[in-house]
Amino acid sequence: xxxxxxxxxxxxxxxxxxxxxxxxxxxxxxxxxxxxxxxxxxxxxxxxxxxxxxxxxxxxxxxxxxxxxxxxxxxxxxxxxxxxxxxxxxxxxxxxxxxxxxxxxxxxxxxxxxxxxxxxxxxxxxxxxxxxxxxxxxxxxxxxxxxxxxxxxxxxxxxxxxxxxxxxxxxxxxxxxxxxxxxxxxxxxxxxxxxxxxxxxxxxxxxxxxxxxxxxxxxxxxxxxxxxxxxxxxxxxxxxxxxxxxxxxxxxxxxxxxxx
Length: 260
Prior knowledge:
Elements: E1 6-10, E2 20-26, H1 30-42, E3 51-57, H2 60-68, E4 75-79, H3 87-96, E5 102-107, E6 123-126, H4 131-149, E7 152-157, E8 160-165, E9 169-175, E10 178-183, E11 187-191, H5 194-201, E12 206-210, E13 213-216, E14 220-223, E15 227-230, E16 235-237, H6 240-253
Helix pairs in contact: 2-3
């Protein structure tokens, strides 16, 4: 059966795109789909978004067919109650296939909300749709989407773009206009401003121990006043200027545990 899909592409030409945010909405009621898509578009902020693609589906089966053909999505709005395959089962199948989208369930009933925990749903919305509740749910979904994207870091090294999981990165070192990225396995050198890389990576636990060293807090084994030791036993300096903010960042990263 041919998929009944509506594509809406929002393009922000003023912002350098880092990829398309793909949103799928799945409901078997046409009028509700129209309203849901309109509400989502109203809450997309051009200054914060790159390219956004919204795709609508009328059934869980159609969504799964598209997914199995390689059309994955970053955020899913799924109606719980649909003919044949419901939203909960659709989400289960996507998780079984290794999919990791942010999921928002929508339903006329409260009871199925408990099943959302099985598939790690982000939010649960009740019909009839309340604009303020949708706005709050969409903002929560966006935060989770951005958090997932930050797990990966991409850098241009000569003529090659290389992507790392942030857990692979030990620290960055700045030397003049060059930045040296040190992973658990090797080093990569490229031209950049370390301050700009710090801005990107601060939300996932990176902090300056020194103006020339940006450190992955997850790899800090021990911390002294003016020196730290990484999990691979490399020692890095902690400058006087960075000592307090670095220690504070490390304590926050550990969940507020006081350092002895």
